[in-house]
Amino acid sequence: MGQHQKNIVHLTDDERYLLEEQTKSGVWRPREVIRAKILLLADVNGPHALQDSEIAKIVGRSISSVLYRRKRFAETQSIEDTIFDNARSGRPTIVDGTVEAHVTMLACSTPPKGYARWSLNLIRDRVVALDVVDEISSSTVGRMLKKKSSNRG
């Protein structure tokens, strides 16, 4: 094989079968298929284990991408952890489909007495009063309605 490879990939027959089937099935996203192909081409138990530079050319990725997938598999020994992305951290969304539905229903309904139409602040206050959410800003309400391209008047 030429030069020494770090993080040797040893796939079992079952793992190899799974990866081969999933790369053909069309269920996985393209990035996951490419990652699976990297593992298949790097497998020393397979029909032909290739060098990182050859794998990178075949799958159209950089050598560092190939090295990272090798390293990831060597550390985790798990197909799932190597192929799929980890959940990303960040602020959880406060708006889901239920909240959007309530906001849209309110915006399309008759405004309260004394008002000609719904304002963003009125909608916000009503959604909080109905216990749909604990708190929400009027700008978030405006973004939701803009996505729906509603007419509040």
Can you describe this structure?
This protein has 153 residues and is mostly helical. It is 56% helix and 0% strand. It has eight helices and no strands. α2 packs antiparallel against α3 and α6 crosses α7. The longest helix is centred in the middle third of the chain and has 14 residues. It is rod-shaped, with a radius of gyration of 26 Å. The model has no long low-confidence stretch (mean pLDDT 87).
Taking the sheet with the most strands, its summary is: none
N-to-C terminal Cα separation, in Å? Answer: 72 Å
Number of strands: 0
Q: β content, as a range? A: under 5%
Q: By helix and strand content, what is the structural category?
A: mainly alpha
- Name the helicity range: 55-70%
Taken in chain order, the helices and strands follow as: HHHHHHHH
Q: Which shape, going by the Cα principal axes?
A: rod-shaped
Average pLDDT taken over every residue: 87
Query: What is the tally of helical segments?
Result: 8
What are the segments in which pLDDT stays under 50 over at least 5 consecutive residues?
none
Rg estimate, integer Å: 26 Å
Domain count: 2
